[in-house]
Structure formats: C-alpha cells, structure tokens
Structure to design on (145 residues):
C-alpha cells in the first residue's frame, strides 16, 4: 500500500517537471560532434564550451553545446587557433547580447512614440526663463579646506 502511494506521489511530481531540452553525456556529445571525449574535456577546461554538470560532476551537453563544438571543429579545420576561436565565440555572444538590447530599446522607443502620439505625456514641461543674474561666490572666512 505504501509503495503504491509513493509511486503515485512520484508520478505526480514527474508530471509537474518541465523538460528544458535534451542533454547528452560526454561520450554521446563527442560522437555527435565528431570529436574525442578528451577534446571536449580540454575545451571545457579552456572555457570554450561549458556544459552543465550533474550532482556527481558528470558533464551534460545540450544541443546548443554540440552545435558550438561543431563550429569550433570547423574553425579549427580552417586554421584558426584556439585563442582565436575563443575570441570569435565571445564576440559572437556579445553581438547577440547587443542585438537583443537594441531590439528591446527599439520596442521601448516605439512604445514611447505611441504614447506621445496618443497625448499621454510622461512628465510635465516647465518653462524656465533665461536669467541675467550674476552670482558671486566667496569663500567663508574662518573655514579651512
């Protein structure tokens, strides 16, 4: 009886789990990328590809990681050294981040334009007259710097 209840409890929990994406052990990822597993370990140490880790420390590679490994292999075959590949990867990531930031800023800009067109001011405009007053500043006596 207790076993049946426990199984139902585990099944209920299993139904609530969302699967993000499939992951692969290092041997499978190496085969998919056409590399040796030791090469993947080296790339992990260098920071070229950083897979997620299990509680036991095992590497788990996503589809995106495998695609990145293929890109690294392609660039390496074209004669780019690992330092160059790392720079290319970092610049690509920075480029994606900047494009996303630009997209968000453009969307915000469009929203603000729409609000202005619809007569919704964001703040209050105040007229500030030009002043011809001159203010003289003098150091107070008896005070030190």
């Amino acid at each position: 009886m207790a076993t049946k209840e426990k199984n139902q409890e585990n099944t209920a929990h299993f139904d609530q789990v969302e699967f993000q994406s499939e992951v692969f052990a290092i041997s499978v990822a190496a085969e998919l990328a056409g590399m040796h597993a030791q090469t993947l370990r080296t790339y992990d140490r260098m920071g070229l590809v950083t897979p997620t880790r299990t509680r036991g420390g095992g590497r788990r590679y996503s589809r995106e990681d495998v695609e990145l490994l293929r890109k690294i292999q392609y660039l390496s075959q074209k004669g780019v050294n690992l330092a160059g590949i790392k720079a290319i990867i970092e610049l690509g990531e920075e480029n994606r981040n900047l494009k996303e930031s630009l997209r968000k800023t453009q969307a915000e800009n469009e929203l603000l334009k729409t609000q202005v067109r619809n007569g919704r001011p964001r703040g209050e405009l105040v007229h500030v007259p030009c002043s011809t007053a001159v203010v003289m500043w003098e150091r107070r006596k008896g005070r030190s710097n």
